[in-house]
Amino acid sequence: MSSTGLSDIWEAASASPYQPTVSKDLQFTFGFALLLVAFLLSGTFGLNRSLVTLPALGIPASLAFGFGAVYMICAVGVYV
């Protein structure tokens, strides 16, 4: 068995704790902004549907909605 066990890795990781990209205090604001952007982009895409606007509006709208929904769910205390 190797000399580096799970406890050694655990102790090494304690020196640098995990810092999330978006802090807990900003999750609601960030999630709300993403959902607002998703709403605007999807509305614009719905009015001007074509293959040209799909990569420009449709894909960013769906990504913003997906990430915004997860941030909002986490911000209000429902952990997924």
UniProtKB/TrEMBL annotation:
It is found in: Membrane. Its main location: membrane. The keyword Transmembrane helix applies. The chain crosses the membrane at residues 26-47, 59-79. One of its GO terms (cellular component) is oligosaccharyltransferase complex. Belongs to the OST5 family. Subunit of the oligosaccharyl transferase (OST) complex that catalyzes the initial transfer of a defined glycan (Glc(3)Man(9)GlcNAc(2) in eukaryotes) from the lipid carrier dolichol-pyrophosphate to an asparagine residue within an Asn-X-Ser/Thr consensus motif in nascent polypeptide chains, the first step in protein N-glycosylation. N-glycosylation occurs cotranslationally and the complex associates with the Sec61 complex at the channel-forming translocon complex that mediates protein translocation across the endoplasmic reticulum (ER). All subunits are required for a maximal enzyme activity. Component of the oligosaccharyltransferase (OST) complex. This is Dolichyl-diphosphooligosaccharide-protein glycosyltransferase subunit OST5.
